[in-house]
Amino acid sequence: MNGSARNRHHTxxxxxxxxxxxxxxxxxxxxxxxxxGSDCFTIYVYLASRCFKNPELEHTTLELKDxxxxxxxxxxxxxxxxxxxxxxxxxxxGGSQKSRCTLLxxxxxxxxxxxxxxxxxxxxxxxxxxxxxxxxxIEEIRQRQQGKRDQKASIFCGNQPLRVSQRNAGVSxxxxxxxxxxxxxxxxxxxxxxKNCRNPYL
Length: 202
Fold this sequence. Notes:
Strand content: 5-15%
Number of strands: 5
Strand order of the largest sheet: 1-3-2
Largest sheet: 3 strands, antiparallel
Helix content: 55-70%
Radius of gyration: 28 Å
CATH architecture of the domain at 20-157: Orthogonal Bundle
Number of helices: 7
Order of helices and strands: HHEHHEEHEEHH
């Protein structure tokens, strides 16, 4: 076998790499990934890759959004979930200042949640009771963040929630919608009539 053939079939190992690499523990896949989901996992992996160079990470939501292609609101929610799981520590700063993120020991975080390492299977396991409690906590974070996002969107769009008056409380939604459409149609016709009165040739 000539040299070019050997090079083509050569298996690249970490020692052959020119660029640095990083590792994440198996507990991330066994314990945390089923709990936090793919978005949190993507952000965690990105933070871990940067932590290889600088343990004290500084970032803005926009930077994480651009780097991971994940929406800004999802980035904020994911960071809070990662913090609640004990995987990162955040120092949040307002305005244009960058927040600071420190990755914590993921093995200790798994043990703090109640996970146990099985020597026979070389894997981590989390009791079902602990798993359900953590999932409920994460869902609470998601619901709260979703509520904040909806509130901001409502204020931004100028869509304040409208209350149905007690007089119309017994009217069905279909009838209210029909009445609205009829009112809009009537307004439109009145506008055209006014224009015709001003200019009889229209």
